[in-house]
Amino acid sequence: MPKNTAGGSKHKKGSNSESSTSKKAKKLFENILSDARDGDVPESLHIGKVQKKLGQGRMEVDYIHEERLHTVKALVRGSLSGRGKKDAFVDVGSIVVVVETGMDVGVTHEIMGVLTPAQVKDLREEMDLDPRLFQSEKADGAADGIEFEAPGESGTAPIPEVPEIDIDNI
User: What kind of fold does domain 20-131 have according to CATH?
Assistant: First the structure.
């Protein structure tokens, strides 16, 4: 169906190309960047990397605080889920802004925004972000995935050899 440009009450509805969620994300990043320049970054704000999707808007996020790697389960904020998902899509490997909620029970951390690669570059220039957040491999150097053992290793019973069958004599 063609776009309504003739008039009526709904012809101006889709005219805004930038949604309110992306405006809020830009404003959040500008505030974090200005706080980093002033040296007033709150203790409860962290920059982390999404490691796993857990379902129901929850993610497993790694962030570094006081030279220690912390892994937490963070909830995706309401404005980033549902209709706002298309503007700030959170996926495994995304760099996100994580905030402590201050609650001891239930949701202790919340994902406030997703950073684009250009925003991450600007933030790395202003803040001291640990390079461990930007590594693609695990800390022990192992690649992701399933590792299979060769037959006969680690105490498993060896596979008996099958005699060769001559197909012409059958």
Answer: OB fold (Dihydrolipoamide Acetyltransferase, E2P) (2.40.50)
